[in-house]
From TrEMBL:
GO terms for molecular function: ubiquitin-protein transferase activity. The chain crosses the membrane at residues 35-52. GO terms for biological process: protein ubiquitination. It comes from the Eukaryota. One of its GO terms (cellular component) is nucleus. Residues 120-284 form the VWFA domain. It comes from Strongylocentrotus purpuratus (Purple sea urchin). Keywords: Membrane, Transmembrane, Transmembrane helix. The keyword Cytoplasm does not apply. This is VWFA domain-containing protein. Pfam families: Copine. The keyword Transmembrane applies.
Amino acid sequence: MVSPAGDEAIMGDGVGQTLILEDQSFLNQHSNMEVILFMLAFLAYMVLYVVYQPKKDGEQKENNPRRVRRTESRYRRTRIFDVLGLSFDQCNSFRAFLDRFSSYEEVARAIKLAGITRSDMIIGVDFSASNEWQGRKSYQGRSCHNLHDVSSSKTFNPYQRVLSIIGSTLEQFDSDHMIPVYGFGDKITQDEAVFPFKETGQPCVGFIDVLEKYHRVARTVQLGGPTSFEPIIRKAIEIVQEKQSYHLLLIITDGQIKDAERTGEAIVKASNHPISIIVIGVGDGPWDEMENYDDNLPKRKFDNFQFVNFHQVCSKAKYAETAFALHALMEVPDQYQSICSLGYLTNATPPLTDNNDNTKKLK
């Protein structure tokens, strides 16, 4: 017979083995669950990474058929294409057209051939607070007005680059080289007024002076907002009424404006005067309202507004800065022709026609 003590020992061993097996089973199940959870978390991370990975400006442009079609349509309408004697077989896309120009001199020559021999300039620079973060994608996370890394033209911030490129192309068209330059959107003027780059209120003398005064102002101005183009457009109208000559109003901005209706009304008012408005976007956007102004303001007397996304244009072009200059100015000859037709200029030089002997092909 087995003693009671022996039975208890056997039962104890059985219970112990059962507990051990249950513990091992629990551990195995727990380990399997950790593996499953890890795999699910990893898969979720990969999905989120792919979905939210930001695209480059160039890729976004290529994937937006509406924007590409709009650019191609404008390209096929502009006079500058016709007066250069280029056929669509030679340049069957806007990108191919841009890449034919390798220097500022070629762009300037094309503008002259299209009928522009003289133009005064007015410049407005956006000093709204959004400049601090609007360079996260397009300017390596720095402020668009950053000056700390600027020691030469190779490290210009976006505003300096635009001023330098436009200056190199257009200064020869400005006979007196007197350029009124204003800031807007800072803490003091906000969306109600503008301030001159020179404390005396006098114009800058040439683009070198413009760049020097920008550097001084950008170091000391307090960024503010909100952003509105109405004050700088209003100021441009005052200048044009006084001088009675054709002007280009160059507005450099970092992003979307707050009061779209007010700015739209100002653009419509400007169409009663010999002014071409060119808005250059140097930040991350969004730019929907700018493109809307470019296409949809039916009350205007003529199409007086051109928007250019600086980083998008420069990202793919063979000659980036030259392509930007041409893109910014390509509608100016058509606008100038409309201004002459409306009788805004009494002593204007008539635009060249296709039969004019001065029209030459770009070689």
